[in-house]
Amino acid sequence: MFIIDAHLDLSMNAMEWNRDLRLSVADIRSREKGLHDKPDRAKGTVSLPELRKGGIGLVVATQIARYVAPDNPLPGWHSSWQAWSQTQGQLAWYKAMEEAGEMVMVRDLPSLEKHIALWTGPKTAGLPVGYILSLEGADSIVTPDYLHRAWEYGLRAVGPAHYGPGRYANGTDSTGRLSPDGKALLRKMDELGFILDATHLCDDAFWDAMDLYSGPVWASHNNCRALVDHNRQFSDDMIRALVAKGAVIGGALDAWMMVPGWIRGQSTPLAMGCSLEKVVDHLDHICQLAGNSLHVGMGTDLDGAFGKEQCPYDLETIADLSNMSGLLARRGYGPADIENILHGNWLRFLRKAWG
């Protein structure tokens, strides 16, 4: 079945992890044997051939570059101009993949329909992977007026926050309402037609954004606080608010977000029982709150600074997302529900947002 993954950090992996994503996952892992600069070396799960193998023909692919103030211990850039320049390098990689015939940008309704027709046609071997460009954390937007430039080059979704305090909004593991600049950013996003990605917004900023934003809202990669109690996850009230706005929420495959009690650097997926079944638990929880299967999808975040050491033990590469159909069917989800979850909900959302 055709699958949409609403969150992959492809350019980050290519440019910062130095991975040639045109290669197989096996070849990338082989190239990284003996490297220890990152915890997921030789454990990656994502490449363009593996996306094709799994029928994952459309992804939401990120740009990401955090600004860090002098007192912020997180890694990042020391000015918004540096962060902007980093995202432009990431954009150059996507454009290079387009020139190589590996990827194609999807930025409006005609390009979406053309790409879906291609991937649901009789021959899918060797097709370019479609990508919708998203910005994870808005720190690199030097001023809200830079959104005009970003829209022109194809950016279509923005998550105002990532981890910690941000220039426009505070994110995971921080608190605080939207700043005046953050509210100005959302107004400009609304004016231009951007999708607001609610992922990573801290609770205070989330509720501000829900009150302020009248445009399309999704949560590309987020799980449920009721199952794993952490501020990175959505509470039931937050999920209900998103459902009321017509949002779709993508189930993430980062193990610490899937199972409670995960200890970074110590826990292992097998010992913690972290299988693909666990993301079905999160998807099902949202479906039960919504009363239907219309507000969930996949937003795996695979290789988002983690690999096999911190993802479901029954997933060798991203191609194994194709196993989700059987897992959902065993939970009692019918063919229409499964189609909704694996691609239909994201398509319906995009057609409405861009129609």
> If helices are DSSP runs of H or I spanning 4 or more residues, what is the number of helices?
13
The stretches of 5 or more residues where confidence is low (pLDDT under 50) are: none
Shape: globular
CATH names the topology as TIM Barrel
CATH level-two architecture = Alpha-Beta Barrel
CATH superfamily (homologous) name: Metal-dependent hydrolases
Count all strands and give the number.
9
Provide the number of structural domains: 1
Mean of all residue-level pLDDT scores: 97
First and last CA, distance = 25 Å
Provide a compact summary of the structure:
This protein has 355 residues and is α/β, with parallel strands linked by helices.
Structural notes for this entry:
The chain is of the alpha/beta class. It has one domain (3-354): Alpha-Beta Barrel (TIM Barrel), CATH 3.20.20.140. The chain is built from 13 helices and 9 strands. It has helices spanning 10-15, 25-32, 48-53, 80-99, 109-119, 146-153, 180-192, 203-212, 236-244, 255-258, 276-290, 324-330, 335-354, and strands spanning 3-8, 56-63, 103-105, 129-136, 155-159, 195-197, 217-218, 249-251, 296-298. Strands 1, 2, 3, 4, 5, 6 and 7 form a 7-stranded parallel beta sheet that branches. A two-stranded parallel sheet has the order 8-9. β6, α8 (203-212) and β7 form a beta-alpha-beta unit. α12 crosses α13. The longest helix is centred in the first third of the chain and has 20 residues, at 80-99. It is globular and about 45 Å long. The two termini are 25 Å apart.
